[in-house]
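Troubleshooting log. The previous structure file for this entry was overwritten by mistake, so regenerating from the original sequence record. Sequence copied from the archived sheet and checked twice against the printout by T.R.
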Amino acid sequence: MADEPKGTEEEVEVTPEATAEEKPKPARKPRAKKAAEPKAEAVEAEATEGEEAPARAHADEVGGSEKPKPARKPRAKKPAEPKAEEKPPAEEKPPAEEKKPAAKPAPSRRTRKETPERVVVRAHAKYVRTSARKARLVCDHIRGKDVADARAILTHTNRAAAEAWSKLLESAVANAAENHSLDGDDLRIVFVAADEGPTLKRFRPRAMGRATKIRKRTSHLSIGLEPKE
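Regenerated output below.
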């Protein structure tokens, strides 16, 4: 006998008796679908007899095990709150017409001539060879004084700028007499001012061949006179 190959499976003989014993499996019955439960939204607040009848019939079809849900009782409505009495709208009063201030009449020519104008006589002196600071020390003494008093103060003031102020005062009195026909004794000084003018630059020789700058300052003087009240 020839040697059989190893690892091979033995053949199984199929007989007609074995085939007869195997029977086909019976088909499964389809599962009965559960009836959908009635939704709570479909139940109305007020239950009626007509709505209970279909619910019972549906329960009998399913098997009678499920009982119909009781209908919800309607909620008691809250009593409406009494509305506040509406007051009739107040009658709107028409806005009072704003009274405009009466326009002042323009002054006539006669009234213009009658009102006396303030007369101020001025005089100016430019490029005075003194510093503005030194000139202010003198003019502060004569501000608001009469012409006679200012003359006496300037005469007895021991400063170089007093001479320049004295000349300027006499010039202003002459302008008042010439241009406005005013007497010098009836005038008083309204304002006096001393402003800085241009500065002259000079140099002075110093030791070791050096030079030092010299500033020669100037000032602009002004004065104003008006009649006494």
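The first helix runs from residue 16 to 21. Archived copy saved in two places this time.
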